[in-house]
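SEQUENCE AND FOLD
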Amino acid sequence: MQEDKTYSICYIAGREITYSRTHVILHTLQKMGHDVHAILPPDKSFLHYPKLLLQFLFTIRKCDLVVVGFYGHFLILFVRLITRKPILFDALVSTFFVMRDRGQSNKGGFKDQIFFLLDKVAMSAADKIILESNDHTLARARVFRLPESRFKRIYLPTIDATVYPQKIKKSLVPFLVHFHGEFAPFHGVKYILEAAKILENEAVIFRIIGDGITAAEDKRLAAELDLQNCEFIERVPFVELPERMSEAGVCLGIFGDTVRTHHELTNKVIEAMAAGCALITAKNAPVQELLQHEKSALLVPPADAKALAAAILQLKTDSALRDKLGHNARKIYLEKCSLEIFQREFNQVLNDLMQNKYRNGQR
């Protein structure tokens, strides 16, 4: 088969079209010229799943293969029961690891075993699984005892038409530090706040955008520390984020102290790279697949507010280093993570699935 082969694809996902991952996958399939039959909910509620599966039942007959998008762990179980056509699973997160990270399951407990089984069965139902890093593919294969050949690493992209270097004057006096994302344990917002306390007399201000399960706790900590150099903003539209990032002297990644911190790349890191911003984030295996310390980012130990504060001060006083990190990160993004790269690699996975279908016979 040729690389430009197109297929009739059923794309079913648990998140709505405005969710970034859903948008990226749908845009990719359409951009590559496939005939896409999208079955998407209006929001993230599980209550829409029966209707989605009913739509799928009547749609799959005219499709060559299925792409199950995020969050599809429950959907794929029923999709596999309905069809034997090839299934590509975008298993962006592990329910098992997420629930542990959020403290909603204890190691070895009943819930822990249920979430493990959900991930295991969902991934076993797929013919191919895409993940965001080599570290992810190795970890999932090992933990869930699945063959590495079932997984394909495709680095996270972002929307290139939206996230790119902006010609905006940066806020350097005072020095603006930017963070956006989910308030979750592995993000480690509390360490950002502790770093803000350390730097309270250094003409550094922090803008923290987002919400999540640790938001109330983190904001209580900010009040206890009597932080005068932090601004909290609940949400901003995605299209505004590139401008917000570009205003800052530095963008922040993740800094938590959980297992997930050691195995996540995160959208915010990719977005900072795409925007050509200087970045500080925790040192972990997925990040180091793309970035090098003091060459394309500053990498600090997880859960270390003092190291984070020192890195911020380093960038505050070294404009040449800021420019170098942003330039090199942008270059790496274009070479390894751009939407064009993602589309090409994603399409190759689809081609491989269809080749295997005809080689081995319809499943």
